[in-house]
Amino acid sequence: MTNIVELQPHNEIWKQQFNELRSEFINGLDSLILAVEHVGSTSIEGISAKPILDIDIVINDVSLFPQVCARLEEMGYIYQGNQGIEGREAFKINANELLNINTPPHHLYVCSLDSKELKRHLAFRDYLRQHPDEAKDYEVLKKSLAATVNTREEYTEGKTEFVESVLEKTLSTYCLPFEKYSSSK
User: Fold this and answer.
1) Alpha-carbon gap, residue 33 to 105, rounded angstroms
2) How far is CA 116 from the centre of its chain?
3) Which CATH superfamily is domain 13-173 in?
């Protein structure tokens, strides 16, 4: 049986790939954005992850979204809506227009500074970066799920209790750490 979710050991290239994409977003979006953040498991050193970067582009408020959306479309992305998650607008690469064939697989989201989902992404990432033992527990859970579930939905659902327990510990006291064009470490 082939695993539905293929995890790979942490790879330093993910940080490099993020930094390259971050530079492209800064160049293409410049004054419209506050930050470009590397979130998700590829942003947490030492744990296995699906080799797909998760990236949040942060804007000051939703009034800027139409301009950001237009620029991202010019850069080769297709707007996908919020996919049922308020405060997180999703984009995918337009394979027909993408000029750089070396672009790594990634999920791209635009979030306003007041987005609950942005705060959740950053709080979870930062907590696991600061608590390597719990990050390893998360890795063990992900590996177990990847080896036993039959769908990506089951994989995601299987992680929910762990994610919510981490967010319960940290979310109420978490403050967004923004400077213009901040990045992951």
Assistant:
1) 22
2) 14
3) Beta Polymerase, domain 2 (3.30.460.10)
Q: Which of 155, 133, 135 is nearest to 144 (CA)?
A: 155
User: The pTM is what?
Assistant: 0.90
- Give the C-alpha separation, 145 to 169, whole Å: 23
Domain boundaries, the chain: 13-173
Q: How far apart are CA 173 and CA 23, in angstroms?
A: 30
Least confident of 22-36, 38-52, 92-106, 144-158: 92-106
Give the residue from 177, 178, 181, 183 showing the smallest Cα distance to 19: 183
112-155 residue pLDDT tens: 999 999 999 999 999 999 999 999 999 999 999 999 999 999 99
